[in-house]
Amino acid sequence: MKKIETIFKDAFILEPAVFGDDRGWFLESYSKKTLENLGLQADFVQDNHSMSLQKGTLRGLHFQVNPMAQTKLVRCTRGAVLDVIVDLRESSPTYKKWLSVELSAENKRQLFIPKGFIHGFVTLAESSEIQYKVDQYYSADCDRSVRYDDSDLQIDWGITDPILSDKDKNAPLLKDSDINFE
Questions:
Q1: 148 is catalytic
Q2: Cβ contacts of residue 114 below 8 Å, gap of 6+?
Q3: What is the Cα–Cα distance from 119 to 112, expressed in whole angstroms?
């Protein structure tokens, strides 16, 4: 597995080694030992799987506040998405900066997202599926979101009229959230 640096010192794109022949291909999508050898620490406890039927579906920006903040390992196993993360650790030199990465079934890339980031994605193809590991269980009490179009963040989603859930339509602005990342 290859670790590719991003603008963030502790968020990485991971590119698995893919072994293929005329039958198809094989890859190791997760190995705790491989991540540790790359200097990445996370004790994943839950896998999540999300499917969006329509191109242009936007999910996010989501996160859990402390003490249930989550490290995530995200990959797209069908279709394609533009995956977006925002650093919301107030003491970070990259505070409020964002990164977008195309994840697709074709490129097989993954995104390692540490605690202190908010996360979302927009589908670039119909019937896109995202699978991700988290190192904290889901907590309804700690579940939060921030508006995808918050002018304070100025994220370029590459879309003007996304398909949104009620939760995402009604998400608060960053300035009105109770984010508690240091």
A1: no
A2: 10, 11, 71
A3: 11
Positions of the chain with pLDDT under 50:
none
pLDDT for 180: 85
> Which token pair is 90?
């107030």
d(CA 25, CA 102): 21
| Annotated catalytic residue 119 | no
Q: How far is CA 48 from CA 10, 52, 73, 135, 149, in A?
A: 22, 13, 10, 11, 25
Q: Looking at 30, 49, 62, 148, which residue is catalytic? A: 62
Instruction: Say how far residue 144 (Cα) sits from the centre of its chain.
Output: 15
Q: State the catalytic residue, choosing from 49, 119, 132, 137.
A: 132
Residues 9-47 pLDDT 10s: 999 999 999 999 999 999 999 999 999 999 999 999 999
Query: What are the structural domains, with CATH classification, of the chain?
Result: 44-176 (2.60.120.10)
Pairing of strands 110-113, 72-78: antiparallel
Q: Is this structure's pTM higher than 0.85?
A: yes
At a CB cut-off of 8 Å and minimum separation 6, what does 168 contact? Answer: 58, 59, 60, 145, 147, 148
HSE (CB half, 13 Å, CA atoms) of 16?
A: 24
Max CA-CA distance within the chain?
54
